[in-house]
Amino acid sequence: MSTPEELTAGLASLVRARVTDFSRTLNMAEVGFLRDGVVWRLHAQCPFRVRQGDRILVGTVDMNYPVDPEADRMAAFDQYAMMFDRNAKKLTALFQQTASFVDSAVLGPAGIVTLALSESVVIEVMPASAGLRVEQWRIFERGSDTHYVFPDSADR
Fold first, then answer.
1. In angstroms, what CA-CA distances link 13 with 25, 92, 130?
2. Residue-number span of the structural domain to which 35 is assigned
3. In this structure, are residues 123 and 57 in contact, taking their beta carbons and an 8 Å threshold?
4. Which residues pair with 38 in a beta bridge?
5. pLDDT tens profile 54-73
6. In Å, how far are 6, 98, 99 from 90, measured between CA atoms?
7. How far apart are CA 82 and CA 62, in angstroms?
8. For 71, phi and psi rounded to 5 degrees?
């Protein structure tokens, strides 16, 4: 269970972390971070986007559109051949070439997460379910039992 104070503390663990990768598992967006030798993951089961200024670089709606507009949508989704996958790979490659770090991590109203990175890049997670037991997002330290889950009642 994660109280607002615990969520804020968990997000603070990402400040000064290097962003390592962007991906998805099924329809869940994932972001990897590395700080002081510790791997952190963000899993977002709600609307998620990465933007630079007013330009969206990748977002969860991109999971609906195959890279090849003639492709079967379900087959492309299963083969990780959606616009999300292409854009996530591009971002991962860019962030591997040019290190990008989390400058600030803010927990906003209704569980909104805003991670400000260098170069005016922002990662935004926007919960969109009224279900109190429907997990919207979590951050966790890989290989440990340290998990921060929103909403608080989702992991009960």
1. 23, 21, 27
2. 4-155
3. no
4. 35
5. 999 999 999 999 999 999 99
6. 33, 12, 14
7. 7
8. -75, 155
